[in-house]
Each structure stands twice: as structure tokens, then as C-alpha cells.
UniProtKB/TrEMBL annotation:
Keywords: Aminoacyl-tRNA synthetase, ATP-binding, Cytoplasm, Ligase, Nucleotide-binding, Protein biosynthesis. It comes from Orbus hercynius. GO terms for biological process: histidyl-tRNA aminoacylation. Belongs to the class-II aminoacyl-tRNA synthetase family. InterPro entries: aa-tRNA-synth_II (IPR006195), aa-tRNA-synth_II/BPL/LPL (IPR045864), Anticodon-bd (IPR004154), Anticodon-bd_dom_sf (IPR036621), His-tRNA-ligase (IPR015807), HisRS-like_core (IPR041715), HisRS/HisZ (IPR004516). Coiled coil: none annotated. Residues 1-362 form the Aminoacyl-transfer RNA synthetases class-II family profile domain. This is Histidine--tRNA ligase. The gene is hisS.
Length: 433
């Protein structure tokens, strides 16, 4: 009897070669841009103490209330697969003394886990690319993060399909005062609210503003505005940010209902959204979190950051930019007769030549044929791999210390001494670029 097939966990996806090359290209672009601003990578564990997320993200958030993968390990400690990466970053920064009285410009890339209903752009394992900057207080760095992401959208060919929403949620005190006014307003309209909002109204009233329920939009649009309760420092910070963005030529909409889902934000919050992905339209979200480091037990240190949902970014690229594609093509395909002739093995020669080509072109993709010895089939494979050049070693070539180069785009074909093959491949490929 055949064994039952084991399947992947729902909402957790395999990244296959049909997409992995595109992922690599996008990753490379993001890393290049982060590097160009002087940011450094940090990698933290995928699993953390559950208490970290409860404290950092907040007890009454969607994430902590219903989305975390939390387990007891064999020692009965409660551990959680990270639902986001900021908390771990701050934990590591405190633990290694990277934050207090210092500047850190960090980036990370890796998987995050949330128990959500899987759908397009929403998964249970997904990936975040993010940035966290510590030790800088003024709006300059907030603006830089936005300028940096704008540069990224441009480099990825999606700048025409993303727009920036911006808000300030002020200080903790200003928010407390506002919450009071908001709850009063919501109480007055309680009959019209849905169950979710009624529940949120007292636990996390700001999140009520996030509701996407169409029948509530008018009530929520008429609710008191957090903006009118901002403390003067937060107002100045926001004005400063807007001015810098104006100077940088970055368009934005002030969305007074943008509050973001996590507890740790203060002052600046922003989202890059798109209309091209349906309901899962937020590609990047971020903001300032000046209170988080001390909330996690460190010395007070200002912080600001953002996270990009990598799957959504790739989906958007696939939807709107057809110049950036999954490219698995091979540059040089090594063909041989796989025979031993007067002590020389043509496969060995093919392998040695391939090594020489890799020595001088480490970025190119050189593939050697194995299996079939039929030349016609080998050429078919070379075409299938999209090779630009085939290098062919048969019995005659082995005897004469030569190899045949076939330029597959033109059909040009000629024999050369083996020691000239690598240089010739380089020349052909450089010419083609
Ligand atoms: P959403 O409102 O879409 O649930 P969020 O506010 O929960 O997003 P954040 O916690 O700000 O999201 O995470 C940053 C980014 O990570 C999001 O803007 C989104 O692009 C991406 N993201 C969040 N949750 C998921 C998920 N389950 N699957 C794929 N991407 C996600
Ligand atoms: Mg969410």
C-alpha cells in the first residue's frame, strides 16, 4: 500500500526555481540600495521567548490575540515563531549593547509567521525585508527611510504603482487623550458598529479606525481626528518630515485614519500601498517607535523602521513590471561525447574547461551535460536552458587538444585550441551584453 503523501503546512509555501531567480534579483536590488545608504544586516533567531512579542507588539493586537504560532518547548518554556522582526531586532540590540547612546542603521530579511486565513498576498509563513534605525530623533531619518523606499520602487519598476500614506499618531499621552474622545464618539454610535469594532472599542480603540467594513466608513470618517490632539513636538516633527519629503519631490497623502496595527508606534506612521494587488494592498509599513527600547528593558533610545512584505513586493513586480523576470538561463553549456580516447576522457576535458571558464567569469552560469552522449539531444538541452554558447568536445577535439564553440544565437561555429576557450567565451558574452 502506498504511503500517504505528506503535504506542506497550509499557508506555508515552497519557493521553487520558477520564482527563486526573481526573488534573488529583487533581494539583490534591495540589498544594494540598503548598502548604498550605509545600512548593515542583522540576523536574529526565528524563535523568541513569547513574552517578547507580548510586550513589544502589544497584548491587544491581532497578532498577539490570534495570529501567533506559540508552543511550549521540551522544557515547558513558551516560545513563538516570530510574527515580525522588529521585536527580535530590539531584543538583540539591547542584549549586545548596540543601542544606548549609539546610532545603528540595520536591515534584516527573513521569514515571519502569522496564523491568518491564507489568500493572495497573505500567508502563514511570509518574508519581511525591513530596516530599523536607532539613536536618531529628528524627522531627517524618517524622511530618509521614505526616500530610500521610493528609490527602491523605482529600481524595481513599480514606482508608478505605489503611493505613500502618511500620518502622525503623536505621543503616548496625546493618544491617551484622543482615545478618550474617540471612545466617547464610538459609544454614541455603538448601535451601528459591528462586533469587531464593539470589541475593539475598549481594548484598542484606535484599531477601530482601521476597519475596512464599508458600512462603517462614514461614521469613522466623521470620528474625532487624532491629528487635532497631537502634542506640539509631534506636530513639529510631522511638519519637518513633510517639508523634507516635499523637498525630495516625494508625493504623499496624509491619511488621518492610518494608525497601524502594532502598539509600539508613535509619531510618524506610513504605508506604501498599491491598487494592483486587490485587498492585500499594503506593500510596506513603518513608523517611529521611540518607546519600544525602554519598553523592552533597555535605556530609552529613539527608533524608526519599516517592513516590506516580500511576497507582496514580488507579486506587484510580476503584475506590473514585465522587464524583471525569473531568469534561470545558462550562459555556457558544455557538450561532450563522454568517451575515453587514447587516455583522454572528453567529459573530463569538458569539466576542466568549465572550471577555467568559471575562473574568469565567476558570475556566469556554466552547465555541463551528463547522461546522454547523443550530440543532437545535448544541443536540444542547451536550447532548453537558454544557453548562449555551447562548447563541444568530441573524440577528434580530445585528440587535437581543441574544442568547438557554437554561438547558439547566430549558429556560428568554429574550433579553437582548448587554452583559448575560456577567453573566447568571455569575449562573446561581453559582446552580447
Ligand atoms: P495587513 O493589514 O495586510 O494584515 P499588517 O499591518 O498586519 O498588514 P505589518 O505587521 O505592518 O502588516 O507587516 C508589514 C508588512 O508585511 C505588511 O505591510 C505586508 O506587506 C506584510 N505582511 C503582513 N502580514 C502578512 C501575511 N500574513 N502574508 C504576507 N505578507 C504579510
Ligand atoms: Mg495583519
Amino acid at each position: 500500500m502506498a504511503e500517504k503523501k505528506i503535504q506542506s503546512i497550509r499557508g506555508m509555501n515552497d519557493l521553487l526555481p520558477t520564482e527563486s531567480a526573481l526573488w534573488q534579483q529583487v533581494e539583490k536590488t534591495v540589498k544594494m540600495i540598503l548598502n548604498s545608504y550605509g545600512y548593515n544586516e542583522i540576523r536574529t533567531p526565528i524563535v523568541e521567548d513569547t513574552g517578547l512579542f507580548k510586550r513589544a507588539v502589544g497584548e491587544v493586537t491581532d497578532i498577539v490575540e490570534k495570529e501567533m504560532y506559540t508552543f511550549n518547548d521540551r522544557n515547558d518554556e513558551s516560545i513563538t515563531l516570530r510574527p515580525e522582526l522588529t521585536a527580535g531586532c530590539v531584543r538583540a540590540g539591547i542584549e549586545h549593547g548596540l543601542l544606548y547612546n549609539q546610532e545603528q542603521r540595520l536591515w534584516y530579511f527573513g521569514p515571519a509567521f502569522r496564523y491568518e486565513k491564507p489568500q493572495k498576498g497573505r500567508y502563514r509563513q511570509f518574508h519581511q525585508f525591513g530596516v530599523e534605525v536607532f539613536g536618531l530623533e529628528g524627522p531627517g531619518i524618517d524622511a530618509e527611510l521614505i526616500i530610500l523606499t521610493a528609490r527602491l520602487w523605482k529600481a524595481l519598476g513599480i514606482d508608478q504603482h505605489t503611493s505613500l500614506e502618511l500620518n502622525s499618531i503623536g505621543s503616548l499621552e496625546a493618544r491617551a487623550e484622543y482615545k478618550h474622545a474617540l471612545v466617547q464618539y464610538l459609544e454614541a454610535h455603538k448601535e451601528q458598529l459591528d462586533e469587531d469594532c464593539k470589541r475593539r472599542m475598549y481594548t484598542n480603540p484606535l484599531r477601530v479606525l482601521d476597519s475596512k467594513n464599508p458600512s462603517l466608513q462614514e461614521i469613522l470618517n466623521n470620528a474625532p481626528k487624532l491629528f487635532d490632539y497631537l502634542d506640539s513636538e509631534s506636530k513639529n516633527h510631522f511638519d519637518g518630515l513633510c517639508q523634507l519629503l516635499n523637498n525630495a519631490g516625494i508625493n504623499y497623502t496624509v491619511n488621518q485614519r492610518l494608525v497601524r496595527g502594532l502598539d509600539y508606534y508613535n509619531r510618524t506612521v506610513f504605508e506604501w500601498v498599491t491598487n494592483s494587488l486587490g485587498a492585500q494592498g499594503t506593500v510596506c509599513g513603518g513608523g517611529r517607535y521611540d518607546g519600544l527600547v525602554s519598553q523592552l528593558g533597555g535605556q530609552a533610545t529613539p527608533g524608526v523602521g519599516f517592513a516590506i512584505g516580500f511576497e507582496r513586493l514580488v507579486l506587484l513586480i510580476q503584475t506590473v513590471n514585465n522587464t524583471l523576470k525569473n531568469d534561470n538561463t545558462i550562459d555556457v553549456y558544455m557538450i561532450s561525447s563522454a568517451e575515453l580516447i587514447e587516455g583522454k576522457h572528453t567529459t573530463a576535458i569538458a569539466q576542466q574547461l568549465a572550471e577555467k571558464i568559471r575562473d574568469i567569469m565567476p558570475e556566469k552560469r556554466i552547465m555541463t551535460n551528463y547522461g546522454t552522449t547523443n550530440f543532437k539531444k545535448q544541443f536540444t538541452k542547451a536550447d532548453k536552458y537558454g544557453a548562449k554558447i555551447a562548447v563541444i568536445i568530441g573524440g577528434n577535439e580530445a585528440l587535437e587538444n581543441t574544442a568547438v564553440i557554437k554561438e547558439l544565437q547566430t549558429g556560428n561555429q568554429y574550433a579553437l585550441p582548448q587554452e583559448m576557450i575560456a577567453e573566447k567565451c568571455l569575449e562573446i558574452l561581453e559582446k552580447g551584453e
